Amino acid sequence: MLKILLFIGSGSFLGGIARYLLSRSIQNTVITSFPLGTFWVNITGCFLIGLIYGLSDRGTPISNELRLFLAVGFCGGFTTFSTFSNENLALLRDGSILYFSLYAGLSVFLGLLATFGGHALTKIIVP
Q1: Which residues, other chains included, contact 55 with Cβ-Cβ below 8 Å and sequence gap of 6+?
Q2: Dihedrals φ, ψ of 27, to 5°?
Q3: With b meaning 16 or more CB within 10 Å and e meaning fewer, what string describes 65-80?
Q4: Residue 55 lies in a domain
C-alpha cells in the first residue's frame, strides 16, 4: 500500500508543478481576463486521462503502478477536472443518464455555490 501511495504522491507532486508552470506560462503569454491558463490545463488533463484509460482499456501493457502514477497522481495533481470528466464519461457509457445529470449538474452548481459561500464567509470572519 505504501508503494502505491508513493506512486500516486509523486505523480501528484509533478502534476501540480506542471499545472502551475503551464497555466502561468499561458496566462502570461496571452493578455486576457479569461482564465485561459486554467482552461487549457483542464482540457489537457481531460485529454491525458482519456488517453491513459483508453490505453488501459485497449489492453496496452500499462502496469497498475504506472496507471495510478499517471491517472490518479499526475492528472489528479494537474487537475481534478480530468477525473470529474472521466467519471462522467463512465456514467454515460453505463447508460446512467440520471446519475450523470445529477453528478455533472450538482457538481458544477454546488461547487460554484460552495466557492461563493467560502468567499462570503471570509467577509464575515475577516473584517
Answers
A1: 62
A2: -65, -35
A3: eebbbbbbbbbbbbbe
A4: yes
Tell me whether residue 76 is annotated as binding: yes
Instruction: Give the separation between CA 39 and CA 79, rounded to whole angstroms.
Output: 10
Q: What is the pLDDT averaged over residues 78-84?
A: 86
Domain housing 63:
2-78
Give the pTM.
Answer: 0.77
* Distance in angstroms (rounded) separating the CA atoms of residues 65 and 8: 8
The total of structural domains in the chain comes to: 1
Q: Is residue 124 part of a domain?
A: no
* Gap between the Cα atoms of 123 and 60, Å rounded: 51
- Assigned C-alpha cell, 54: 483508453
Per-residue confidence (pLDDT) for residue 35, from 0 to 100: 83
C-alpha cell at 16: 501540480
* Pairwise CA distance, residues 15 & 39, whole Å: 15
- pLDDT at position 127 is 67
Cβ atoms 73, 11 nearer than 8 A:
yes
Q: Which three cell numbers stand for residue 111?
A: 461547487
Q: Is 15 known to sit in a ligand binding site?
A: no
